[in-house]
Amino acid sequence: MSADDARRLVLRAQGLLGAPDRRAGVHGMLRRLGAVQLDTISVLARSHELVPYARLGAVGRPAVEAAYWTPGHSFEYWSHAACVLPIEDWPLFAFRRRAHRERGYRWHRLEDSGAALTAVRERLAAEGPLTATELGGAKRGGPWWDWSQTKIAVEWLLDVGEVVCRERRGWKRVYELADRAVPGELFHDDLDDESCVRELVSRAGRALGVATVADLADQHRLSNASVAKALPHTDLVPVTVDGWSEPAWADPAALREPPRGRHRTTLLSPFDSLIWDRRRTERIFGMAHRLEAYTPKEKRIHGYFAMPVLAGGHLVARVDPARERGGVLIARRVGFEGTSAAALRSAPAVAAALREAAGWVAAERIRVERVVPATAAPALVEALGEATEFAPEAGGS
User: Fold this and answer.
1) 3-state DSSP helix/strand/coil percent for the chain, to nearest 5?
2) CA geometry: angle at 130 spanning 124 and 135, to 5°?
3) Is it the case that residue 110 has pLDDT exceeding 90?
4) Above pLDDT 70, what percent of the chain?
5) What gap in Å lies between CA 313 and CA 118, rounded to an integer?
6) Per-residue burial over 123-162, b = 16 or more CB atoms within 10 Å of its CB, e = otherwise
7) I need a surface site. Which of 27, 85, 159, 269 has the fewest CB within 10 A?
8) C-alpha–C-alpha distance, residues 20 and 52, integer Å
């Protein structure tokens, strides 16, 4: 298949091409993607809120949280990173829970594991669900990784499947005993490791549309070797994509129906599953995107939390957003991809993405501080409309 065909398959699989399934809503989106990454950074909103917004439009943030954390709908566990996962996938992570048990620890070791684990189990049984703070405190007073024995114990019980994170409250994990949080028919570790990996690879293939072995492995942080071993036992079929240096695999159901429909125009979280794999993003969209939140300010190129802009099935720009009291969405930097002529063509789409984002976060005005190339600034500001301020002196031009 051509690279363009592959790109469209990917966009449809990710829910960004064609009519959004609003009836299925956020939970349906979660089941389709298989995993939504969590992250502490909040600019317009937290990343797990930005992901459904990108696909479904201005979904109310309380509705997003309710869809994720309604009991029996989902759970948080280690997948691509810390992710919200569909509750029906609980059995598929038995291989990871077993691996943690066999190792005996993850990051921290308990000083008195028997007493600490028993105390957490008893408190949750009697009072749960509880946060680490409610259990007795998460830290010992040092840096953020200086966990208390209580925090180490409850996180270990989460790793091995005795405890589930059933929601985030004030960004703190709320822990519950797994036999209470996971529906009875799903609460088992009966699948062997190969069965778990095989099913996760199949689901990753459906979520990605078309993918290399490394792409499939990255979805849930599996090894390339385990994915390669599982592939012949899945329903995914081998394909060749023009310009891809490695063989690829595709969902046969996706191949039977050519992708059609309207392309979504939107800002994307850097942690969105469409682009969280940087090598794959560059291969499919030609954008070398890196999160610069942890890069010193003076060394940043695109900004603290630069969000790629998806329009017409392509990544056409990056916006580094912020919010200001008084209902102002700030575009600290809008950087267009390609030539100056391409920037002028993309300006209306980028403006539409900014206007929709402003409406979603209840911002009445938009302030643009920097546009690259500067020649595209007039077209962008004109497309944004009257409620826009261009203030190059604030961020340079």
Assistant:
1) 45, 20, 35
2) 75
3) no
4) 96
5) 52
6) bbeeebbbbbebbbebeeeeeeeebbbbbbbbbbbbbbbb
7) 27
8) 10
